[in-house]
Every structure is written in C-alpha cells, then in structure tokens.
Amino acid sequence: MRIAVLKERAAGETRVAATPETVKKFIGLGASFAVEEGAGETSAITDEDYRAAGADVLPMAQAVAGADIVLGVQAPDVMTLTGAKPGAMVAATFDPFRDKDRVDLYAKAGFEALAMEFMPRITRAQSMDVLSSQSNLSGYKAVLAAANQYGRAFPMMMTAAGTVSAAKCFVMGVGVAGLQAIATAKRLGAQVSATDVRSATREQIMSLGAKPVFVESVEGIEGEGSGGYATEMSEEYQKAQAELVSSHIAKQDIVITTALIPGRAAPRLISDAQIATMRKGSVIFDLAVAQGGNVEGSVADEVVERHGVFIMGYSNTPAHLAPDASALFSRNLFNFLSAFWDKETGTVTLDEEIGDAVRLTKGGAVVNERLKG
Ligand code: NAD
C-alpha cells in the first residue's frame, strides 16, 4: 500500500496531513510513504525529518505516482492526482456542501473521496474527528488573538498604582471551540459567560467556572440535538436571543462567536446596532467568519473597526497554529485508516457506519446521502 502526502496548495494553508510520527506508524502497518518536497515546511517539519521517519521525499508528480491513498488537509485539485492508482482513496476535508464542483470532479476522475468533516459524532470515531481536533485549537487561538488586539489586561491586577479590573468575556456557541475558548479566557483571568441553543451546554459552561446566559422564554434544543449539532432556530427564538444578547453584550469587553450549523450559513448573532453599545476598544472574534459570519461586518483576515470596537476573524484559524494542528490532524487520519487496515492483505476496508458517512464518491459517482437532493 503506497500512501502519498502533497504540499497543501490552498492559499493560507500551513498545515500538512502527515507528520514523521504518523509516517512511522503507517510504515509500521506495512505501507510505503511518499511526501512531496517541502510539504512540512510551514508546520516546522523538514524533508530530512520525513526521510528519517522512512518516507521517500519527492517532487509532486513522483510523490503521487502509484499512490493507493492520498492524504490531505484540504482536498488537492484533481489535476495534481494524475498518476495515482485508479480508484485511489483520498482522505481530506472537502467542504462538500460548498464545493460541489470539486466533488463532481473527484467522481469523474474515479477516486474514492473521503470527507473527514463528515466523520460521524460517535464515541469510537472521536479520535478520527478532525473537526474536533481543529476546533479545539481554534477556540484557544481566538481568545489569544482577541487578547492581543485588546488594549487592556485580561486578569484583575491589584497594584500599588491601583486596581485593573478583569476583562469580561462572552462566548457564543459552546461546542468544541467554545469550550476551549471558555477555558482559555478563564486561564487568562477573564470573567467569562457563555450561551448556546443546546440546553446540554449549560452544565458544561458551569463546570468550567463560567456563567451560563440562556434564553429562558422560548425553548431551545433539548439535550445534544441531532448528532450533537444545532439546527436553525425558530424566528421566535432568534428574537428572544437578540434581546438577551443586546442586554448582555453592552457590558462585555471580549466576545468570541463560534456558532455553526452544518450545511448552512452561520447564524447571525450580533448586529451592528448591538456592536454600537459596546465599550470602545472591545474586541469581537468571529470564528464563523469563513462560513458567512456570526457578526455583522466581520471580514476574514481583517481587523474591522466599527463604533470603536474591533471585529476580527481568520479564514483558517487552525492554520495559525500549524505544528500542533498538523500533529492532531495527522493523528486523526492515522486513527481513521488504521482502524480499517488489514495487515495481511494490505488493504483498507471501511465499515458501513463510518464508510457511508464519509465517502463522497466511488466508482465514478457521487454516493453520499447528504449530498443527494
Ligand atoms: P459546531 O461547530 O457545529 O457549532 C458550535 C456551537 O454553536 C454548537 O454548540 C451549536 O449548538 C452552537 N450554535 C449553533 N447555532 C447557535 C445559535 N443560534 N446561538 C448560539 N449557539 C449556536 O459544534 P461542534 O463543536 O462541532 O459540537 C457540536 C456537538 O457535537 C457538541 O455537542 C459536541 O459535544 C459534539 N461532539 C461529539 C463528538 C463525538 O462524539 N465524536 C465529537 C465532537 C463534538
């Protein structure tokens, strides 16, 4: 079994889909491994590191030649896969709802596209889940970036020259990124509050020592919601939420928004009018900026100033922590493929539950239920 990893070509992508650690582990399973020259550079991994782990480090076309499996952070252009085995597996993120053309091209080329963001939220797949591993780092980075932009301190400081009061930080959306954002802001000494539409997050917020802020008048999503995810909320809920946010946000210094709904644009949580009520110098970090944004006026990779408030967000937050993000992403890929690896035959056979969830294309067709209709 030949596995190939190419240099990521998407703008701003600094991660890589294999590290020397996972190269060694795949070789331990009996695979041979090819890495494109310079693939690890932006994640602080040299070609020499890959060679020492047992990989062949080659120019792109030679690296991909004869590959049975290609690994990527973002799915490579089909053009770059010329020379891979017919029907080769390509495991990467595909952004399948927004990039349907790419999915079609993979189908036409006959590859088996495996979308890592479609990994089911089940216990045994936790170690394979790139959304979780990358969101966790994103939540951390969002707070650090906001703290850096904020002209005041996070912790309360009692000094001979007087007291500096603690920053007030509000986290909106308490999934994996939100939980890490709460924990990070707490570690930095902020007073933290948080909200979500899922009732199950109330306890999680409190267990991190933060204050839950919830819409009480209209019912949200009881428990975890389908597959753990949120759905679009009713108009009545959205109105009640806007009122709650308006009264709370005026007293906040830092707001981190993380709300996403799979397959849809991110819900709008903060309006320009609400931003106008915040103290000058406050910072809003919109982690959903690349999915349409939770915050009115947010622009990816820019710091926008509105009413004296800074609004920011990155198009690719984990790429700002490339060595750690690559290490976790690569382990997710290894955990995924090794779970279905037959050492004797040297083949990978996915089971129904996980295979049907992640497989986008096979045998020349788009086969994923979530992409049909
Ligand atoms: P996500 O990135 O899809 O969304 C972030 C958060 O935003 C979610 O908590 C969501 O409820 C919230 N949200 C959506 N609309 C909102 C709105 N209008 N206002 C406020 N908040 C809103 O979430 P995620 O990090 O992928 O986590 C989703 C769930 O999946 C969680 O319950 C998490 O614990 C669970 N999970 C399970 C596994 C597993 O079992 N393998 C792995 C990861 C996550």
UniProtKB/TrEMBL annotation:
* Cited Pfam families: AlaDh_PNT_C, AlaDh_PNT_N
Q: Which residues form the Alanine dehydrogenase/pyridine nucleotide transhydrogenase NAD(H)-binding domain?
A: 147-313
Write the Enzyme Commission number(s) for this entry.
Answer: 7.1.1.1
Q: Which GO terms describe its biological process?
A: NADPH regeneration
Record's Gene Ontology CC terms? plasma membrane
Sorted keywords for this record are: NAD, NADP, Nucleotide-binding, Translocase
Q: Which InterPro entries match?
A: Ala_DH/PNT_CS2, AlaDH/PNT_N, AlaDH/PNT_NAD(H)-bd, NAD(P)-bd_dom_sf
State a single Gene Ontology molecular function. Answer: oxidoreductase activity
Q: Which domain of life is it from?
A: Bacteria
Q: Which CDD domains match?
A: Rubrum_tdh
Catalyses: NAD(+) + NADPH + H(+)(in) = NADH + NADP(+) + H(+)(out)
Give the Alanine dehydrogenase/pyridine nucleotide transhydrogenase N-terminal domain ranges.
4-138
Tell me the function of this protein: The transhydrogenation between NADH and NADP is coupled to respiration and ATP hydrolysis and functions as a proton pump across the membrane.
Q: Which family does it belong to?
A: Belongs to the AlaDH/PNT family.
- Please state what the protein is called: proton-translocating NAD(P)(+) transhydrogenase
Q: Which organism is it from?
A: Alteraurantiacibacter aquimixticola
Q: What is the lineage of its organism?
A: Bacteria, Pseudomonadati, Pseudomonadota, Alphaproteobacteria, Sphingomonadales
